[in-house]
Amino acid sequence: MLLPKIIQDGNAVIAWKRNGTREIIEGPKVIYAPFDKIYPLNQASARDGEYLVIEYTDGRTEHLGGPCEIWLDPLLHSNIYAKEAVSLDAHEAVVIYDDHLGNVTHRVQPGPAVYMPKPTEWLHQFQRHGDNGKGQKVPGKLRFKKLRVIPDQLYFDVDMVRTADEALITVQLMVFFELSDIEKMLPQTHDPIADFINAVTADIIRFAGNRDFEAFKSQAKQLNNLETYSELCNGANRIGYNINKVIYRGYVASNKLQVMHDNAIELRTRLVLENETEDQQQQLTDLKLNREHQRAAQIRQEDEREIKHTLAQLDQKNEQKLTAQKKEREQELQLIRQRHEIDKLQQQELLELRFAEWNKIHSSGADLTAVLVAQQNNPDKTIRLDHKGGAEVHLHEAV
To answer: How many other C-beta atoms can be found within 10 angstroms of the C-beta atom of residue 175?
Structure first.
């Protein structure tokens, strides 16, 4: 009786029959066939961003992009393993070589992309100068396969630069560059950083050699201009790079020269500080005088304002007093006019009464003069005129 053979899910076996044939069986499954031998198989898989390298027993090699999985058949495969594909960002690129029947060609693969090489392809390995952690550039320190095609920068110190008066200094620079043409770079240089270092060193030596130390310090701002770096710019263009700008970060002198320079700086700084102190004292004195003048002007303005206010109050009081007096006079005049009008009316009424009385007396035939004289019991004065002929007398009496 044949016992069943259970193959679990996710497993596989290779089963050999007695007649020499074989069969690969994947689980889950139960088998009853009379197999002579059963061997478990190993599985190789690749996820997203990976690929399988399949090495056959006949010497062939095949690459299979993930996600995928395959069972390792010992009769067909000598080895199967997963490798990570080359992921390229938008600012990266790789140089790919392909050997097709002895004819080697190359091409540039820019990002963004995920690159899975063919069995006949390989990536260019770049080796360039790099920092050794002590501020020095060492050949072959940088090893990489991905080129950066975005602006980059390089810190570099040009050592032992001699000025026209034999002063030794170290010039500190920062070079900003950008790879513009990969095809132009490949046949022209194997280490652009070394080319940059040699070119910028030549430009700095030429700049410093034409000037003494004091002239170098006073004209050092020219080291921020690209016109100063003709060798660097021309050399970069020749190998497919662009130099965007160069920043001058300063210089370092020898110990003896640095001491002299520090002393000179200390002296100049002391003089500047003394000058600034004197200027501050003068400014403080001027400030005090200006404040005193301003304060005096404010006091004068306040006094003038108070005087104007007092005068305005006096003018207002006088105006009110004059207005009251004028109103009082107008009232008095009004009373006088009213009194005159009353007197006038009374006199008019009296005259009218007298005139009516006189008309009545005159109408009755009486002597009006005698009546008027009789009414005056005590005349103020008496004038007697005796007229006995002769010239006629005229009497004039002052009123």
So the answer is: 22
